[in-house]
Amino acid sequence: MMKRPRGYTIIEALVMAAVALVVFGLLFNVFLVALQRTQDGRIRVDMQQQAVFTLVAWEKDLERTSQRAIRIQTGTPLYIGVTNARGVAGNGTVAWEETPTSPPIPCLARWCYDPTARTLSRGLYARGGNSVVNPTPSVLSGLTPIPGQEQRVFCKDVEEFSLKDRNGNTTLASQPLVFRLKLRRALSTSQRFAEFTVERRYTLRNSF
User: Fold this and answer.
1) Which of 48, 116, 134, 170 registers the highest number of CB atoms within 10 A of its CB?
2) DSSP per residue over 50-71, as a string?
3) Which of 103, 105, 100 shows the shortest CA–CA distance to 64?
C-alpha cells in the first residue's frame, strides 16, 4: 500500500516560525539602520542649506554697508544692525541710504540671534516711526520693521553666532570682520549630534 503524505509536526512548525522571526528581525534591523542614516543625511543637508542661505543674505548686506554702519547690541538676544551706506559726503560724513515715506524702502537689516530659541533671524527696517538710520546699539532691539518684512528665521538649531573684529571685539574697530555660525542638531539615534560650523573673514570695501 502507498503511504499517505505526512504533514509538518508542531515542532517543525515552531522551528520554522522561529527561523522566520529571526530572518525578519535581521531584515528589519537593516531597514531601520538604513532609514536612520537617510534621516541623518537629510538633517546634515538641511543644516548646510540653512548656513549657505544665511551666508548669501549676510554677504549681500555687507556689500551695501561700511565698517561704521554696523552696530552690535550684545546680550540676549544679540542684535546686529547693518545700514545701507551710499558713500562719504563733502564734509566727510557718511551719506546713508535715504528712505522715502511712501513706499518705504529698507535702509537697514537687523539680524537677531536668540540663544534661548536657538534661532537666527533677519528683518528689514526703514526711516520713520521708531526706526532710525544707523541706530546706536542701545536702540536696535526697539526698532519697528516694515510691514511684511518682519524678522524672518534663517536658521534653527543655532548653537553659536557672533560677529567680531580681528581682535575679538564687538566694537568692530579693525578689519577683517570675523563671522562665525555654528549649527547643532540631534540625530535620529540617541546621544548623537550633527554639527556644522561656518567661519568667514570679511574685509569691507567701504571702510568709512
Assistant:
1) 134
2) HHHHHHHHHHHHHHT--GGGEE
3) 105
CA atoms 14, 19, 23, 28: torsion sign? positive
Q: How far apart are CA 189 and CA 39, in angstroms?
A: 10
Backbone angles phi, psi at 170, to 5 degrees: -85, 0
Which helix (H) or strand (E) segment holds residue 16: the answer is: helix 10-63
Bridge-based pairing of strands 119-125 and 94-96 is: unpaired
How far from 204 is each of 62, 89, 91, 134, 178, CA to CA, in Å? Answer: 7, 19, 22, 17, 11
Q: How far is CA 161 from the centre of its chain?
A: 9
Q: Quick check: 99 and 134 in contact, CB under 8 A?
A: no
Q: How far is CA 189 from CA 24, 41, 104, 160, 194, in A?
A: 22, 12, 48, 23, 11
Q: What is the pLDDT of residues 3-25, one digit of tens each?
A: 555 656 777 667 777 777 777 77
pLDDT in tens, 39-53: 777 888 888 888 899
Computed over every residue of the chain, the mean pLDDT equals 81
At 155-200, the pLDDT tens digits run 889 999 999 998 999 888 888 999 999 999 888 776 788 888 999 9
CA distance 102 to 47: 38
